[in-house]
Structure formats: C-alpha cells, structure tokens
Design goal:
six-stranded mixed beta sheet, alpha/beta, 5 helices, 204 residues
C-alpha cells in the first residue's frame, strides 16, 4: 500500500516540536529538506514546507532569495513542492505545504512560526555575491536567525551541512489549544512521476 504523505485536513492540529523548512528554487532548499528529514524528522512525523510568494514585487535583485515571482500562477508555485512530495512519501514522512504572500519574505516566515508555535525552522543558505552583502534585508536566513521567536531553533543549511544554528533560548510554553495547520496545496504522493527520485540522492 502506498504511503499517503500529504496532509490535507485543515482542521488537523500541529504536533509538538513541529519543523518548518522554508523553500524556494535554490538548490540549498533541497539540501535543507534532506537535512531536516535526516536530523529532525522521524518516520510518520510531520514536516511543513513553507514558500513565500513575494507580494507586489516588480523585480528581484541578483543574489536575493530565489523565489517564484508575484505574477506566477498557482501551478508554477506548486511545482516547487513536487520533488518533495515524492521524497517525503518514500521516507514515510507526513508533509504539509504552505504558500504565503508578503512583501517581506523573512517576516512572513517569522510570523508563521510565531502563530503556529514552531520549534524548529530550517532554511537553505542564500547565494549572494560580494555586492549583495550590503543588502542585508534580502538575506532571508540571516533575518530569520535574528528575528525568529526565542522558542524556535533556526538551522541554516548549505550543501548538506549546517552553516549556522541559533538554538532556542527558552522552551515553548504549553498552550491550551494548539494552532491549526494551514491550508494545503497539491496532489497526493502516489500521483508523482519517478522523474524526481533524484532528490533522494541529493542535489548535485
């Protein structure tokens, strides 16, 4: 029997110690998902993939986070998730997909972490050249590391290795009513093409 790994119940509650991985088109997103699956997620546990679609964005400067643009269709955005659906299904990991829209990518992710009491956040390192070092606001991993809630550990991954980590400064306080999972997107894993099996072997 095929493992149905895509969570589609909007009323489902987040488990304790939930993990979010922020994804975009960059190769380091694949490394981030694989690292999270190997180090933070065990079989049948949930991984939440979050992509932020820039809102009212006219252009993107070189070296900034490689996201799908504001004018992209839902189908184009969902293509980002396709390889991860098959990968998580083969690893027997439950998958939740989240698409956010905001003018500030890092702020959108931080707000989502705060509202949903996420205890682990993983993001791929940004690909920036020397010129872009002056545009610190475009560096999502650095902003996320600086601004994430104190109860959330942040891991920045590059080429399968931890580039930096900011451990949680305090435990997550107990809540009487755990937050609900956000709306999900996409197809079930059994509908995937075998073309994306390469994710198991890592980005090259």
């Amino acid at each position: 029997m095929a493992f149905h790994g895509l969570v589609q119940d909007d009323a489902a509650m987040l488990p304790m110690n939930s993990t979010v991985v922020a994804i975009d088109k960059d190769k380091n997103s694949q490394y981030a998902v694989r690292w999270a699956a190997d180090h933070l997620i065990s079989s049948t546990q949930l991984i939440i993939l979050v992509h932020v679609r820039p809102k009212n964005s006219q252009y993107q400067l070189p070296g900034s986070v490689d996201t799908v643009g504001a004018g992209s269709t839902d189908a184009e955005v969902q293509q980002l998730f396709v390889p991860y659906r098959g990968y998580c299904a083969r690893k027997s990991i439950l998958l939740k997909e989240v698409i956010l829209e905001d003018v500030d990518v890092a702020k959108a992710i931080v707000d989502y972490i705060s509202m949903n009491c996420i205890t682990n956040a993983v993001v791929g390192a940004s690909s920036r050249n020397a010129l872009m070092k002056t545009f610190k606001k475009l560096d999502v991993p650095s902003s996320l590391t600086k601004s994430a809630p104190e109860f959330c550990s942040v891991y920045v991954i590059a080429k399968g290795k931890v580039l930096s980590v900011r451990s949680a400064l305090r435990p997550l306080a107990n809540t009487a009513a755990p937050p609900k999972l956000p709306a999900s997107y996409g197809l079930l894993p059994q509908q995937l093409s075998a073309d994306y099996a390469g994710l198991d072997e890592g980005a090259r």
